[in-house]
């Protein structure tokens, strides 16, 4: 396999002009830093409201986590409904649970309104139990969905084989409202749209430091009335306090050669689905452009490693497992693989808040999920436009919220171990 982001290499013929680096000192009404899903949607909302916008990106648009993603757009949260209710109570959990769905709808609306070419596919989600003990998790989630009037279909082992005949799956829950996209192509389409709307985009322009309302880069600077920071893998020099509250988990993706119709039918006899299982570090896969299958996963040793690991051994384990579950794929070659570092907080909820000392600066960090990122980017832009109407998320996403392990524990155990233990706690709640 070639170590290369296939989504970027074959970006569905979406061509965008190159945007030169910033090499001068500029002023504007709104500055957006970071051109992933959060930054792009923030810039779009501001531009549509007639604001003067400059967008700075350290690589190219979609160069970070957004453009390396598997493209899952699912209304499900990183946490099950039961977990959210336990933490926040039923009423508050309902507000939080709606966000992923709102993010999906925002992305769909943008694709359809502007005719984006990004391999949009309707693919209901299928949550799969791989162990007998995990069956109860899915049953509990189904029970709560039923109580809340949410749509789902529960498939026991024999019934599951009719829609997804993989070996070893014990129970499945199918939920509607999920879609798949080529995330890198989406970012390129957004870039073209923003340029048409008059947004000034400077790529290969990393912000090295903030001095008040001035963002300084290697060759220039931007002074803005409002600054929206939507970056990942934040360096300590950028904001030392906030960088300690964000870590990143490493995942791997691989893409197969084109599959035959019979091979696809052997996986999805009735309809394409996007699948993931009940393990903490789970396998996930779906069909993408060109009748290929995209598969993702990670390992305990690679998941929290702070640097990119380029070995193919991690993803090969998941590929081999997929072939064992579906023997019809035993001779299918996988051509490309790549890794990505996804920013997360200790409790898996994003950090979306004003700067403590300067309310003209907002942060949008740790959005694990394209729909979360799109929603949160749009959200902070709406706070610029009308701050009074967008305070409903403040209690969930504020920067100064308490985590289970306080800061002094992180100093003792180190960032990597503290985040791993925090996520284990969230998984087993």
Mass-distribution shape: globular
Mean pLDDT: 91
Rg result: 21 Å
- Rounded to the nearest angstrom, the distance between the terminal CA atoms is 38 Å
| Estimated structural class | alpha/beta
> What's the CATH H-level superfamily name of the largest domain?
FAD/NAD(P)-binding domain
3D structure, described in words:
The chain is an alpha/beta fold. It folds into 2 domains: about 20-70 and about 185-245 and about 350-425, FAD/NAD(P)-binding domain (3-Layer(bba) Sandwich); about 70-90 and about 120-180 and about 250-345, 2-Layer Sandwich (D-Amino Acid Oxidase, Chain A, domain 2). About 35% of the residues lie in helices and about 25% in strands. It contains 15 helices and 20 strands. The protein has helices at about 5-10, 35-50, 80-90, 90-115, 130-150, 155-165, 185-195, 240-245, 260-265, 300-305, 315-325, 370-385, 395, 405-415, 415-425; strands at about 1-5, 25-35, 55, 70-75, 120, 125-130, 155, 170-175, 180, 200, 210, 215, 220-230, 245-255, 275, 285-290, 290-295, 335-345, 350-355, 360-365. The strands form 3 sheets. Strands 1-18-14-17-16-15-6-8-7 form a 9-stranded mixed beta sheet. Strands 2, 3, 10, 11, 12, 13, 19 and 20 form an 8-stranded mixed beta sheet that branches. The chain has a 3-stranded antiparallel beta sheet with strand order 4-9-5. A hairpin with a 6-residue loop joins strand 19 (about 350-355) and strand 20. Helix 2 (about 35-50) packs parallel to helix 12 (about 370-385) and helix 3 (about 80-90) crosses helix 4. About 45% of the residues are buried. The mean pLDDT is about 90.
